[in-house]
Task: inverse folding
């Protein structure tokens, strides 16, 4: 059966799709294998036998990642002072924050600059990951659960290492499984004068060089 795993899904969403479409598939076994592999389950369309085991699918996804995340990418990461894991963490945030390919290198550049200047990243997607992990963890095998609900103001005070409003460092792990465009956007990120960005209701990103411009964008694009 052909199965597509979109960019930006977390490992539980992979497990859901596999469990729904394969015969006698063990999602718990798959998640046990994938526990330390968030970010390394490569999103793509795969031809998978209906009787495939959890380990066979896991090896297919990770094996594809290893081919795509090649020496060239690792070498470029080293040139800009990033470890492979740091690339994946930032790419996973870029994947969830920027819909358009041409925005990804700019968003990556802002995130890297903020991190290196000891600013909080303030990325909503990391809050969504933390909230989804708490809210859906025991629900998703029984009923549908939205892993990526819009962030509420109350979520910003959540105690979690993934809360990039409260913590200045990168999250401890990737928050999803990014595609190649987002990975390359990090290692070939675009330096700019921008420090802020926001997405409007259409997913269009608006950039700002300072807090005054950013607040103007908030008033213009996010307020009714």
Result:
């Amino acid at each position: 059966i052909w199965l597509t795993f979109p960019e930006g899904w977390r490992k539980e969403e992979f497990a859901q799709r596999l469990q729904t479409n394969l015969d006698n598939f063990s999602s718990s076994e798959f998640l046990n294998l994938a526990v330390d592999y968030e970010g390394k389950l490569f999103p793509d369309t795969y031809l998978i036998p209906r009787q495939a085991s959890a380990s066979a699918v896991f090896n297919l996804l990770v094996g594809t990642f290893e081919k795509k995340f090649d020496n060239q990418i690792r070498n470029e990461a080293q040139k800009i002072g990033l470890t492979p894991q740091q690339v994946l963490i930032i790419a996973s945030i870029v994947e969830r924050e920027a819909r358009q390919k041409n925005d990804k290198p700019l968003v990556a550049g802002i995130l890297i600059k903020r991190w290196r200047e000891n600013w909080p990243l303030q990325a909503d997607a990391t809050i969504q990951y933390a909230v989804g992990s708490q809210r859906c963890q025991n629900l998703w095998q029984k009923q549908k659960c939205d892993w990526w609900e819009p962030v509420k103001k109350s979520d910003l005070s959540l105690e979690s290492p993934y809360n990039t409003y409260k913590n200045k460092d990168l999250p401890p792990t990737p928050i999803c499984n990014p595609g190649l465009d987002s990975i390359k956007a990090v290692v070939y990120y675009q330096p700019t004068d921008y420090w802020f960005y926001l997405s409007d209701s259409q997913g269009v990103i608006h950039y700002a060089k300072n807090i005054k411009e950013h607040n103007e964008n908030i008033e213009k694009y996010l307020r009714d």
